[in-house]
Amino acid sequence: MRRLFWLAMGITIGALVVRKLSAAAEKMTPAGIGASIAEGLRDLADAIGDFGADIREAMSERELELRAGTGLDAPLPDAADAAALRRGSHAADL
User: Fold this and answer.
1) Which of 35, 79, 12, 89 is nearest to 4 (CA)?
2) CB burial of residue 49 (10 Å; 0-12, 13-18, 19+)
3) 3 to each of 8, 10, 16, 86, how far by Cα in Å?
4) What are the sequence ranges of the domains in the chain?
5) Could you read off the pLDDT of 31-62 as tens digits, one per residue?
6) Considering the entire predicted model, what is its pTM?
7) How far is the CA of 59 from the CAs of 2, 68, 74, 76, in angstroms?
8) Which of 27, 83, 89, 93 could form a Cys-Cys staple with 32, CB 3.0–4.6 A?
């Protein structure tokens, strides 16, 4: 019984080692290296896209802050208010 256990243990460990070595050898082939480079480029493109999205979001938030701070989003005066403003500015010039 003990010999059967160690035989099964040896076969299992041997199979695992062969699988790991085969995977490592596959990564060293030109196709494996190309796949690694392609995966790295995809990850880089995803990171650049995420960075751009973060920049656009922060830029729009900052634009809203600036518009609120400068009053650019305030409603335009109607015609009567504009006429009163013009008369007031001309009267000050005289």
Assistant:
1) 12
2) exposed
3) 9, 10, 20, 106
4) 2-71
5) 888 989 999 999 999 999 999 999 999 999 99
6) 0.50
7) 70, 14, 21, 25
8) 27
The torsion angle over the Cα atoms of residues 36, 41, 44 and 46, rounded to 10 degrees, is -100
Determine the Cα–Cα distance for residues 50 and 43; give it in Å rounded to an integer. 11
User: What is the amino acid identity at position 36?
Assistant: S
Dig out the tokens for 34 from the structure. Answer: 């190309």
Q: Tokens 């010039």 sit at which residue?
A: 93
- Each residue of 9-34: pLDDT tens digit? 999 999 999 999 999 888 888 888 89
Q: Classify burial at 89, counting beta carbons within 10 Å of its beta carbon; exposed 0-12, middle 13-18, buried 19 or more.
A: exposed
SS3 41: helix
For the record, the structure tokens of 83 come out as 């006429």
Residue with tokens 């008369």: 87
